[in-house]
Amino acid sequence: KMSSDQPAAADVRFFDTAKVIDFRQHVLPEFVEQATGFSFREDFGRWTNADIARLIFCSPLPAMLEVHVAMMPWDPNMNQPILVVAGGEAKIFTPFAKEIRLYKIGFTCKFPGKMIEFFIPHALSPRHFSGGVSDDPRRLGVGIQSIAIKKSTKISSLTNSLALILQKGGRSISARGSQAVDEGR
């Protein structure tokens, strides 16, 4: 569990300018109240190491926002849908490249909230997955370099109307699909 020392003032205009979490840094920015499900810092950023990676902010998220995630999947999560939930709205993107790529996800929040959650389909230890090649006991999911959150003034063109039901941990999660924009192409 990571947390910052100084909370930011709760201000509805807080996300008017983009806020960036650089996971290559040792310390989280002060606008992040808490982060769980993330491993230790590495040169590229941080791996998720749980079924759910969660960020809780000091200020409420805007009603309409864009989340830009620079990340790469660990092998079992290549081409697997990642569910992201913010403000009661769920979106899905599918990471497809072994190197860091930028994925954009647009949200129209159903209710005010301060949390973004990433549901990882296959959080697995390299120790068990690699057939003994690695002794890493962490349950890796995706490697995240940075996450930028910014207020949006329009509904994202990334949203489509397909309904998708994901089975995660014995409960059904309904989500409208979202396609990630690969900025690396």
Descriptive account of the structure:
With 185 residues, this protein is mainly beta. It has one helix and 13 strands; from the N terminus they run E-E-E-E-E-E-E-E-E-E-H-E-E-E. The strands form three sheets. Strands 1, 3, 4, 6, 9 and 11 form a six-stranded antiparallel beta sheet that branches. It has a five-stranded antiparallel beta sheet with strand order 2-5-10-7-8, with no helix packed on it. A two-stranded antiparallel ribbon has the order 12-13. Strand 12 and strand 13 form a beta hairpin. It is globular and about 50 Å long. The chain starts with 18 loop residues before the first strand and ends in a 7-residue tail after the last strand.
Layout of helices and strands:
Blueprint lengths: L18 E4 L9 E5 L1 E4 L4 E3 L3 E6 L6 E10 L8 E5 L2 E5 L7 E8 L6 E5 L6 H4 L12 E10 L7 E10 L2 E8 L7
Antiparallel strand pairs: 1-11, 2-5, 3-4, 4-11, 5-10, 6-9, 6-11, 7-8, 7-10, 12-13
Fill in the keyword field for this structure.
185 residues, mainly beta, 5-stranded antiparallel β-sheet, 1 helix, disordered C terminus
pLDDT < 50 stretches: 1-11, 156-185
Discrete helix count: 1
Strand/helix succession:
EEEEEEEEEEHEEE
What general form does the structure show? globular
Kindly provide the radius of gyration, computed on alpha-carbon positions and rounded to a whole number of angstroms.
Answer: 16 Å
